[in-house]
Amino acid sequence: MYHSLNSTMSLIYVLFAGSLAACAGTGGWRVAPAGVAAAGPNPLVQRASRTAASAARTQVEQYGRFELAVRNSRRYADPYKDVTLEVVYTRPDKSVVKFWGFYDGADTWRLRFMPDQLGAWSYDAKFSDGSPGVRGAFDCVSGNVPGMISALPSNPMWFGYSSGRPVLVRGLHVGDRFFAANWPAEKRRAFLDWAGQQGYNLLSIASHFLNRNQPGRGQGWETPKLWPLDAAEYRKMEEILDDLARRRIMVFPFAGFFGQGSNYPRDPAGQELYVRYTLARLAAYWHMLWNAAGPEPNVNEGWMDPAEVHRLARLIKDLDPSGHLISVHNRTGDDLYIDADWSTYGILQGPKTRDVNVLSRGLLYVCQN
User: Fold this and answer.
1) Contact, 8 vs 345, CB < 8 A?
2) Which of 179, 207, 265, 337 has the greatest number of beta carbons closer than 10 A?
3) What are phi and psi of 229, to 5 degrees?
4) pLDDT tens for residues 176-212?
5) How many CA atoms lie within 13 A of 75 on its CB side?
6) Which residues lie below 8 Å from residue 176, measured CB to CB, with a gap of 6+?
7) In Å, how far from its chain's centre is CA 122?
């Protein structure tokens, strides 16, 4: 459960894993097993730079982050579109994961990947236009990363980590300013220190991927401008995401990849380019949930057609090699997409009120129905 704080109203959202409701048949709340991870070091990120056929072997934590810079001196009119860096990762059990790298400015592309099996991995990266690629190996070792936030393997009704560890999710909605450059960094740090002291381990962040450019929401907040694609803007976001990982704070992107009022691409080709690039950079982050679109694409006939919600959510899920949980920000009431073939956790939104009795009745209603 996470709490949403607002100057005019109080909302409560319930997030639940799997395809089952998160409430007992009697209307009481079921609570996931305790086991919230304490604050700790950032997941191990191994970085190296190689320009040709091989790279030095290194060690990466399980569910941590392997990262490698690849130089390409060829000039492109649009390096985000004109060439791709296709990568094949081979697990210790010899199964393979096909993914891609991303352009990171100047003559630099990067591989970024979250290994899920202990043992020796190899990778082979090739540019689509024949420019020199890179190949090499690394060892995945045990470490301090709890695992990717997921459905608890032993009981997928609950959240847990992909390692099998349970987690009790306690979250806070922080609105649109969180990533903004004009929200002073010292205030962000003070807020995060406070949130950690209160036991919060998940933040719901409104203008996350793209700014909800509407009065009272994202308008006026200088959040990273990810579209059109801009590597420097993504790095601004990643710096803060890395801090959250160090603090063991998970992330729910309130407005999702395609947020209401945001400057997301409208054409399918642009949407796939945006999703592919975002996943190339963020799929290796263990502490993130996915949200296809929001908030409330179906309110008052909807600002996004249900068929479009399904299409975009499937696109995100199909392209993500790490298998992050994915849902959509629903209107108050039932989760309209809970039985969708792409939906792996649910979002129930309580009634918009400050009256705790009305709030309680509303939550119990959606819980029981």
Assistant:
1) no
2) 207
3) -55, 135
4) 999 999 999 999 999 999 999 999 999 999 999 999 9
5) 1
6) 206, 207, 211, 212, 217, 218, 221, 223
7) 25
